[in-house]
User: Fold UPF0340 protein DDV21_009615 from Streptococcus chenjunshii.
Amino acid sequence: MDLEKLERESRKITADIIERSAVKKGQIFVLGLSSSEVAGGLIGKNSNLEVGEVIVKTIMEELAATGVYLAVQGCEHLNRALVIEREAAERKNLEIVNVLPTLHAGGSGQLAAFKFMDDPVEVEEVVAHAGIDIGDTFIGMHVKRVQVPLVPLQRELGGAHVTALASRPKLIGGARAKYVQDPIRKF
Assistant:
């Protein structure tokens, strides 16, 4: 696998979704990642630590300038718990749980997050404002309502399908109501 190409493409996808999702400083951006899929295998069958490290490090670098927190979703063996910086967990009053990810329970993305974050912890759940799903890991459970699907300019990363979500406030009020302009979808 060409890791330099993987980094370039990860950066391009992330920058695209950060811009179009209108995620703001202090909000949470969730990553679902199947390194197995990126490497051309089946989800959960061939976790690749090197692939996870390249992707997570690149996304962290892209988010660093924005002040947005990254939360990395684990696999079903950890009930989709997420790795996030302790400061974010405490600031957002998230439930910290006691588990350390492994390559096949949590996955390469979570191991990379533990390696590159300053003070990582696992939390049971988050309410993110946007995120990227690399390899069909289904991040929707961690993105706040109302979810808005974003089609990335690049729909594949290695062998993995890539999707993304943003969120917007609920529209209430009915036919007579007026709304603030939506920064994601202009209506």
Remarks:
- Residues 74 and 106 are 4 Å apart (CA to CA).
